[in-house]
Design a protein that fits this description.
The protein has about 450 residues and is an alpha/beta fold. It has 17 helices and 13 strands. It has a domain of about 150 residues: NAD(P)-binding Rossmann-like Domain (Rossmann fold).
Length: about 450
């Protein structure tokens, strides 16, 4: 029997999406589903919600169990076919608060802080040890399972598990599926496109829309013409802004559109969030401290909706575009599907990026597993920007695996945004303050 272990099941809405999708996939409807979390209340809420969903859309065919705490982790993973990772180590409080408030004292501002930058580095440092513990348990009790990682920082966490363990893993993100469609819709071109084709590759949250065509016709010339006009008008002082100014500007300068949103992209580069040029924040409509605001809003929204969602015995679900159930279904049925997956570049999938890098590339999925596709060289400006982010990722993975404090300092020193704002001494002091603030959420470093 297929078994799906869902790690971080207290993420109730996301669990509903991935596991509800699975209940609607014929090959997965009879699966055993093991729910694992460290929070008893959230685990109980998710279990009750999923029991109701299983009854209402799946005739109760799936068998659900709940597993609380580290002492029950191996039981959740025992014999798993697939392990879905959706944990957040430290939650909003205290971890996210620390990631934003401590750097702010140094004048270092962030927007999201979950993928790169000083926030992404420390999110990785507290998450990688936990994920490696999952992997070691999987090696012992579910050695053939596939690990489907949805947790940020995606490249660092997926890269660490692939480099340091024997677990088969792929990192999954939301930004690839809707990239081309979203760009065309933003520029008023979607309704006119009849046979859309696109190709995306790079690294997570900084993959590139390398080709976008309509029946073979290159759409980039018209995309760039409209984007230039839109951004030129929006950049004027007092003009009405739009939500994608940073990405469109990067595309106009480097030639290609990047997959992740402008609020993310702004903190992956040294060009937009600058204390020496505060006017850029307004000019490019950059939402500083956006992730803490989202967290506060999501917590409030959950308090309002949790009771009705958890106790709804008539709960319904429509299959989403999340990759998880489609990957599991393709492996179970041998009917192929295509995804954008995060995998090691060890076979030189992208030939002008480092072999140790975790890259995001097209992948074929069937009974043979996740099979990444060869891409070749990226356009050099795209590869050049990717490499600045990969430097930080690899040094952070080294810090997490080797428990080396100097690697933490070096990761921060090479981070594009942090390096653009702070001196070496200030970077080291900031890292030391963050290590102290995290306390026992981090392991000891030598």
């Amino acid at each position: 029997m297929t078994k799906i272990a869902f790690m971080g099941a207290g993420s109730t809405i996301f669990a509903k999406n991935v596991l509800g999708d699975s209940m609607l996939a014929p090959a997965l409807r009879d699966a055993e589903i093991a729910l694992y979390d460290m929070d008893a209340a959230r685990l109980a809420e998710s279990k009750q919600m999923l029991d109701n969903l299983n009854a209402s859309i799946n005739a109760g065919r799936a068998r659900l169990t709940a597993h609380l705490g580290v002492e029950n982790r191996r039981a959740a993973l025992q014999g798993a076919t697939y392990v879905v990772n959706a944990i957040q180590v430290g939650g909003y409080e205290p971890s996210t608060v620390i990631d934003f408030e401590v750097p702010r004292k140094y004048g270092l501002r962030q927007t999201i802080g979950d993928t790169l930058g000083i926030g992404g580095i420390f999110r990785a440092l507290r998450t990688i040890p936990v994920v490696l513990d999952f992997a070691r348990d999987m090696e012992a009790v579910a050695p053939d399972a596939w690990f489907l990682n949805y947790v940020n920082p995606m490249a660092m966490i997926t890269g660490a598990i692939l480099e340091a363990t024997s677990v088969r893993a792929v990192g999954l993100c939301h930004s690839v599926q809707g990239c081309a469609w979203g760009l065309l819709n933003e520029l008023g071109m979607l309704d006119d496109v009849k046979h859309l084709q696109w190709k995306i590759a790079g690294i997570n949250h900084q993959a590139w829309l390398l080709k976008i065509t309509d029946g073979g016709k290159d759409l980039y010339p018209e995309i760039k013409r409209r984007a230039a006009r839109l951004n030129a008008e929006a950049r004027k002082k007092g003009a009405k802004k739009h939500g994608d100014m940073v990405r469109l500007e990067v595309m106009l300068r480097l030639g290609y559109y990047v997959t992740e949103s402008s609020e993310h992209t702004a903190e992956y580069v040294p060009w937009f969030i600058k204390s020496t040029h505060p006017e850029l924040i307004e000019e490019f409509h950059i939402p500083l401290d956006e992730y803490p605001r989202r967290c506060i809003s999501q917590i409030a929204d959950w308090k309002k909706m949790s009771d009705s969602l958890v106790h709804d015995t008539q709960l319904t679900h429509a299959r989403t575009g999340e990759y998880g159930s489609y990957i599991m279904e393709a492996m179970e049925t041998d009917v192929p599907t295509r995804i954008g997956g995060n995998v090691l570049n060890s076979g030189s999938l992208i030939t002008n990026l480092p072999r140790r890098a975790c890259v995001e590339v097209p992948c074929l999925v069937d009974r043979n597993g996740v099979q990444p596709c060869y891409v070749g060289d990226l356009p050099e400006p795209c590869a050049a920007l990717n490499r600045t982010n990969i430097n930080v990722q690899l040094l952070t993975v080294d810090a997490a695996i080797r428990r080396r404090k100097d690697c933490i300092y070096q990761a921060a020193m090479f981070d594009p945004h942090t390096a653009a704002e702070l001196s070496i001494d200030r970077i080291v002091a900031l890292c030391d303050d963050l290590i102290e603030a995290h306390g026992n959420m981090l392991p000891a470093y030598r």
